[in-house]
């Protein structure tokens, strides 16, 4: 009888332990669900392969700034076969990076996007020429070979503003072999990359900003669809806050963040990233950003761009600048 009682008590004890264990597991699952619910999972599509122009995004990821603001962000690289505008418009990602003129043209095509921050206050696109063979004005391009991508918007703008009828226009294919061998030729480039690579080959170059002609759209602009913004204001606010903090952090942590960028894009060397970081500094932290903070945009700049694109017959009709951008979510400075 005594043996039976001991067995009975043992069974009761096991049942009690099982119940407690089940309760703990259930509580843990509920806590995880609660934590997961508090974190918003979103995807950002870059405008190109990871580079220093995305330094603020990577800093926000590596420094835990996105996480502090309740975001779990997946960063998806861009590239020649990837359109961030199309991906965001289709709903396959929530946030994208593109240049301001791309957003304006997309709106003309019926894609309702809203820019919420600009990483670069202007365009680093330039004409590059051999040192000592430069141009003072864009009309000096006449009589020279100019390698430029067919259909690129700023070339249409330049031809509408200046008489460039004596330019020998040749298609830019991403290679600089012909340019290297032709001392008087000129080629399109980015101030933040090509001059560095040619210098490594022993070729000295100089550049002239396209923006000097008056065509200067914001670059690397953070955007969402209008519909997403209206339904997810808190998430957009948290993302913009993280984006700006990330860029401010990158200013002093670029050396370590560039290693992370290189890990995602092994084709680019650390010294090239360092050059890009240094040469883009004025575009990110200078101009209006020096007074109003990183990401700042103005109605005047957007209105000018819209009018320029309309004048080039790239828009069916102009629209109000405040329909395509907002500074509502940027921190006050």
UniProtKB/TrEMBL annotation:
Gene3D superfamilies in the cross-refs: Periplasmic binding protein-like II (3.40.190.10)
A Pfam family matched in the record: NMT1
Top-level taxon of the source organism: Bacteria
PROSITE patterns: PROKAR_LIPOPROTEIN (PS51257)
GO biological process, one term: thiamine biosynthetic process
InterPro entries xrefs: NMT1/THI5 (IPR027939), SsuA/THI5 (IPR015168)
Record's protein name: Putative aliphatic sulfonate ABC transporter substrate-binding protein
Origin species: Peribacillus asahii
